[in-house]
Each structure stands twice: as C-alpha cells, then as structure tokens.
Amino acid sequence: MSLKDDLEKLKEEGLKNIAESDEPSELNDIRVRLLGKKSPITDALRQMKDLPAEERPKVGSFANQIKEEIANAIAEQQAEFEKMMIEAKLKSETIDVTLPSHKTKKTGTMHVLHQIIADIEELFIGLGYQVINGSEVEEDKYNFEKMNIPKDHPARDMQDTFYIDDELLLRTHTSPQQARTMEEHDFSKGPLKMISPGKVYRRDTDDATHSHQFHQIEGLVVDKNITMSDLKGTLEILVRHVFGAERKIRFRPSYFPFTEPSVEVDITCFACGGTGCKICKGTGWIEVLGAGLVHPNVLKNSGVNPEVYSGFAFGIGPDRLAMLKYGVEDIRNFYLNDVRFIEQFKGEEA
Ligand code: FA5
C-alpha cells in the first residue's frame, strides 16, 4: 500500500471515530491520536523524505488536506456536543410559568355576612334598585323622629342605643335611610327604589341570637299606587333567591311605628319543608324580616305627599339570615374573628 492509501484509510477511520464519539473527552482523545505529535499523519509526513522529489508536494498537500478535514470534523463534532449540553441545561432549568405557585401565604375570604349582603345587593340591582350606603352615626331626628317615633314614644324602648350626645347616636336600624333618600329623590323623574345595607347598633344584651352590633338591609319603594301585593311579590323573590325556589312565605300582622299596616314575614322552614322540626320549633315557619306599607306620617316627614304617593319598606337582618342558611347556632361567631369559623365559608362567593 502506498503512503497516499495509508493516509486515505486513516482519514476514513478517523472520520468514522469522530462521528461515533459519544462525549467531549472521547473526542479529545481522538484529536490527540489523529493530529498530535505522535499521530500516524505526522508520522506519514515524516516519511515523505523517502519519496521521490516529484511525489512529495502532492503527498504533502494531500496529508495537509486530510489534517484539515479531520480538524474540521472534530470542530463540528465539538460544536454539536456544546449544542447538546446547552439544550440539556435549558431543559433541566425550564420554568413552567403556568404551574400554580406554592402557597406560602394564606389568602383571605369575604366575610360570610358580606357575602350574603353582596348577593342580596346583586339581586336588587337586577330588579332596578339603587344601593345606598348610610352613616352609622345618625341624628335622633332621622333614626326616630322622622320614622314616626317622637321623643318619649314607648317604641324607643325596643331600640335603645349608644348616644354620642343628646341628638347624635349610633343608628339602631337602617330605616333612617328611608327619610334621607325620600328627601333627596326627585319624584318627577320616576319611582324611588332603593336598598340600604349597613351596620346598626342596639343596647341589647349579647346572647345566641342578639348582638349589640349587627347588620340590616333596608328596602324602600315609593311610587303612585304601591300596595301590599307589590311588597309580597318582591319579598317572595328575595326569600326564594336566598333560601330556595320551593320556599313559601306568609305575612303575620305586626307593629312598627313607621309602617301601616305592618307585617312580620315568615318562610316555610328550609330544614323540614314546613312539617315542623327543631329549627322551626315545630311550627314549620321561620321568621325572617319585618315590613309594611310606609306610614303616611313618614312620607309627610320626608316631604312626600301621602295623598299622591304610597310605598312599601322592609328591614332584613342578614346576620339572622346567615344563621338560618348555614345553621350557625350563635350570632357571636360572626364577630369573634376565629379563622376556623370564617374559613368554612371560603368559596361561597358568587
Ligand atoms: C327594625 O329594625 C325595622 N327597622 C325593620 C323594618 C324596616 C320594618 C322597614 C318595617 C319596615 P326589628 O327591630 O324587628 O325591625 O329588626 C329587624 C331585624 O333585625 C330582625 O328581624 C332581626 O333579624 C334583626 N335584629 C334585630 N335585633 C337584633 C340583634 N340584637 N342582633 C341581631 N339581629 C337583630
């Protein structure tokens, strides 16, 4: 075999070894073996001196060409290894931004009472009502007098409160918003339809069903020809929304100084469906709110002519609604801020 054939064979074997190498260290060994000082190519070049003079340049350039081809193949393979390494690294360090995060902090939830209030607000907004927030510090005039409860009226005993001075107090109900919104409303532009949720206060002794601080949602509609059937239809929608479509309601005569006639509204018990159980104390009915037609004196006190206009009003206690709906046995649980209690209502938001 000639030197040229030897070199050709070396090249073929070398290129095959390079292509088959699995890792950079193996490739480096091949490089040293094929291109280093003791490589067969270097050896072959040394043997050139024994060739005839005219052969030498040809074989020399052929040997250099082979050296170059092998060096290029090594460089390409080296680049391939580097590319593979970068790809593997990127793959192992990939961050999937769509994965849920590790929860390090506890997230809060809307308080169950505010969930109930928000739900009722949404219902009434859908029925075309405005939502009006009143002030918890109220004037005696609005809390009592304009509500047809003059000073020294016995009905004041039912709603004793915390006084700031003789004329300023913490409101005992959301009803003062009736007078305030009637005074503001421009009846030439249409009927008044509003609900007013908020916190109220009474000098009640705290027990399982009474708190000195609780919530109410006032409802008021004033227009021409408003009757008890408007009130009944509206409350039916409300009760069925909160307690389920199969609930029935009944009106019982009652007394409030600011409505005439006045009613207490009962619903058929959601636990037994009306047959009688522990929750409804065997009656099949549960009391949920007070309501009535706005007393002519209240209309007058707020600058509305009772000869032309009439209205209905209702007052709901969302604390009691929440107790009934979720079987909460003690109203004070709503105000203790015990996270174990509050967390039970997580995810109830609409
Ligand atoms: C009133 O406060 C009337 N203003 C409601 C009203 C408005 C009637 C408009 C007619 C027309 P009453 O005192 O019954 O009524 O209270 C209404 C609701 O508030 C009760 O049904 C009850 O759910 C809730 N409530 C009353 N006192 C407390 C209390 N101490 N703790 C928790 N909830 C209470």
Question: Would you write up a description of this structure?
Answer:
By secondary structure, the chain is an alpha+beta fold. It has two domains: 90 residues; 234 residues, Bira Bifunctional Protein, Domain 2 (BirA Bifunctional Protein, domain 2), CATH 3.30.930. Helices cover 39% and strands 18% of the residues. The chain is built from eleven helices and nine strands. The strands form two sheets. The chain has a seven-stranded mixed sheet with strand order 1-4-5-9-8-7-6, with helices on both faces. Strands 2-3 form a two-stranded antiparallel sheet. The mean pLDDT is 90. Bound molecules: adenosine-5'-[phenylalaninyl-phosphate] (FA5). The site of adenosine-5'-[phenylalaninyl-phosphate] (FA5) has 21 residues, from strand 5, strand 8, strand 9 and helix 10. The site of adenosine-5'-[phenylalaninyl-phosphate] has 21 residues, from strand 5, strand 8, strand 9 and helix 10.
Shape: rod-shaped
CATH-derived topology of the largest domain: BirA Bifunctional Protein, domain 2
- Summarize the biggest pleated sheet: 7 strands, mixed
Q: Output the strand order for the largest sheet.
A: 1-4-5-9-8-7-6
Strand content: 15-25%
